[in-house]
User: Fold this.
Amino acid sequence: MSIMESVRKRKPRRPRRSFTPEFKVEIVRLCRRGDRSVGQVARDFELTETAVRDWVKQAEVDAGERNGLTSSERETGRVAAGEPRLREDVDVLKRATAFFAKETR
Assistant:
Protein backbone atom coordinates (compact mmCIF):
# COMPACT_ATOMS: atom_id res chain seq x y z
CA MET A 1 0.00 0.00 0.00
CA SER A 2 1.43 3.37 -0.97
CA ILE A 3 1.52 6.41 1.30
CA MET A 4 -1.19 8.13 -0.75
CA GLU A 5 -3.53 5.15 -0.36
CA SER A 6 -3.06 5.09 3.39
CA VAL A 7 -3.68 8.86 3.61
CA ARG A 8 -6.96 8.48 1.72
CA LYS A 9 -8.17 5.68 4.02
CA ARG A 10 -7.83 7.68 7.25
CA LYS A 11 -10.98 8.46 9.14
CA PRO A 12 -12.11 12.06 8.74
CA ARG A 13 -11.32 14.23 11.75
CA ARG A 14 -14.09 14.94 14.17
CA PRO A 15 -14.83 18.66 14.53
CA ARG A 16 -13.24 20.25 17.59
CA ARG A 17 -15.68 20.31 20.47
CA SER A 18 -15.72 22.60 23.47
CA PHE A 19 -16.93 21.71 26.93
CA THR A 20 -18.10 23.82 29.83
CA PRO A 21 -15.97 24.00 32.97
CA GLU A 22 -18.84 22.36 34.88
CA PHE A 23 -18.83 19.38 32.51
CA LYS A 24 -15.06 18.98 32.91
CA VAL A 25 -15.38 19.12 36.71
CA GLU A 26 -18.01 16.38 36.61
CA ILE A 27 -15.85 14.16 34.39
CA VAL A 28 -12.86 14.66 36.72
CA ARG A 29 -15.07 13.82 39.72
CA LEU A 30 -16.14 10.56 38.06
CA CYS A 31 -12.51 9.66 37.33
CA ARG A 32 -11.37 10.43 40.87
CA ARG A 33 -14.17 8.44 42.45
CA GLY A 34 -12.27 5.34 41.40
CA ASP A 35 -15.03 2.97 40.34
CA ARG A 36 -14.23 3.51 36.64
CA SER A 37 -10.94 4.04 34.85
CA VAL A 38 -10.15 7.19 32.89
CA GLY A 39 -10.49 5.15 29.71
CA GLN A 40 -13.92 3.86 30.70
CA VAL A 41 -15.18 7.34 31.59
CA ALA A 42 -13.87 8.63 28.26
CA ARG A 43 -15.64 5.85 26.34
CA ASP A 44 -18.88 6.31 28.29
CA PHE A 45 -19.03 10.00 27.36
CA GLU A 46 -17.50 9.64 23.87
CA LEU A 47 -14.44 11.68 24.79
CA THR A 48 -10.81 11.13 23.96
CA GLU A 49 -8.84 9.49 26.73
CA THR A 50 -6.10 12.09 26.28
CA ALA A 51 -8.50 14.96 26.91
CA VAL A 52 -9.87 13.35 30.05
CA ARG A 53 -6.36 12.64 31.36
CA ASP A 54 -5.41 16.28 30.70
CA TRP A 55 -8.49 17.49 32.60
CA VAL A 56 -7.61 15.23 35.56
CA LYS A 57 -3.99 16.45 35.56
CA GLN A 58 -5.09 20.09 35.42
CA ALA A 59 -7.51 19.51 38.31
CA GLU A 60 -4.61 18.04 40.32
CA VAL A 61 -2.48 21.11 39.57
CA ASP A 62 -5.33 23.44 40.53
CA ALA A 63 -5.77 21.53 43.79
CA GLY A 64 -2.05 21.78 44.59
CA GLU A 65 -1.52 18.03 44.29
CA ARG A 66 0.80 18.32 41.29
CA ASN A 67 3.34 20.88 40.06
CA GLY A 68 2.49 23.07 37.09
CA LEU A 69 0.61 26.18 36.04
CA THR A 70 -2.86 26.53 37.51
CA SER A 71 -5.80 27.32 35.25
CA SER A 72 -5.76 30.97 36.31
CA GLU A 73 -2.00 31.22 35.64
CA ARG A 74 -2.53 29.70 32.20
CA GLU A 75 -5.29 32.21 31.44
CA THR A 76 -3.10 35.10 32.59
CA GLY A 77 -0.38 33.84 30.25
CA ARG A 78 -2.79 33.76 27.32
CA VAL A 79 -3.87 37.31 28.01
CA ALA A 80 -0.27 38.50 28.34
CA ALA A 81 0.69 36.72 25.13
CA GLY A 82 -2.03 38.61 23.27
CA GLU A 83 -1.04 41.96 24.78
CA PRO A 84 1.64 42.94 22.22
CA ARG A 85 -0.83 42.22 19.44
CA LEU A 86 -3.42 44.44 21.11
CA ARG A 87 -0.90 47.27 21.46
CA GLU A 88 -0.02 46.92 17.79
CA ASP A 89 -3.71 47.03 16.83
CA VAL A 90 -4.26 50.16 18.93
CA ASP A 91 -1.25 51.81 17.32
CA VAL A 92 -2.57 51.05 13.82
CA LEU A 93 -6.00 52.41 14.74
CA LYS A 94 -4.45 55.61 16.12
CA ARG A 95 -2.51 56.14 12.90
CA ALA A 96 -5.58 55.46 10.78
CA THR A 97 -7.63 57.90 12.85
CA ALA A 98 -4.98 60.59 12.44
CA PHE A 99 -4.77 59.93 8.69
CA PHE A 100 -8.52 60.17 8.13
CA ALA A 101 -8.82 63.20 10.42
CA LYS A 102 -6.21 64.96 8.26
CA GLU A 103 -8.01 63.92 5.04
CA THR A 104 -11.37 65.35 6.10
CA ARG A 105 -10.07 68.85 6.87
The chain has a mean pLDDT of 85. Residues 5 and 11 are 13 Å apart (CA to CA). The chain is about 70% helix and 0% strand. The longest helix spans residues 71-103.
